[in-house]
Write the structure tokens for this entry.
Amino acid sequence: MWEYDFMQNAFIAGTIIAFICGIISYFVIVRRIAFAAHALGHISLTGAAGAAIIGLSPMSGLLTLNIISAIIMGLIGDRIRKSDMAVGIVLTFFLGIGAYFLYLYQTGYAGSIMAIMFGDILSVSSRQIFIIVILTSIVLISLLIIMRPLLFSSIDPTIASSKRIPSEALSIYFLILLAITVSMACQIVGALLIFALLVGPGAAASECCDGFYSSLSVSIGVSILSVWLSLLISFYANLPTSFCITMLISFFYIISLFIKRLRMRHV
């Protein structure tokens, strides 16, 4: 298996993206913006289709539109945390445009759009890995800079506001980082299944862990392990990698529920 360049690239890209998705997933759960993560995944299709129509890379289109959508969601303010209405409106608007773009695009772009929809990690090139490393570094460094105030405002936004922590600015900032992560993760699981990688690891960690560091570690571990095992299974069993990732993450979440139940019995 390791003699194939495409498998080496898949493991490198998968590990990097799984690592950052594990971190982002924790904050998605804590901030209760799972629907926003789900919406950005679907909005990716509009960006990819629009870019394909004008002859640009689908990746550049979905990254640009995801960031724009994240800013719009963030500008709405705290309503994004209290109601899914704002996210739903943004999602509906861009899905409508996406449907029109898909109607217009030529059949020559079908392969690129399908790769965005369902993921194609086995076709990741060295150039794409370079881009992934740069984007991951940007997201990781940005998270390290805002980690403490972001965690504070995520857990208790009311007290955070009283301490003059700019919660709304942090919300927009994090949504932009989420948008970048969604754009990268689309290459692994695809826009239609992105919800699993951006929500599943954090959800599993929240069920079986209490502390920040333990939850973050479990979230990262579940994300990376799911990608690694999925690549192995897909190679030897000839199954779609994105399918394996979503199934394994679901499996780990079920295990976390059993662990939670066992912990409650021993309390």
User: Anything to note?
Assistant: The two ends are 46 Å apart (CA to CA). Residues 5-265 form a domain with the ABC transporter involved in vitamin B12 uptake, BtuC fold (CATH 1.10.3470.10). The chain has a mean pLDDT of 84. Residues 126-155 form the longest helix (30 residues).
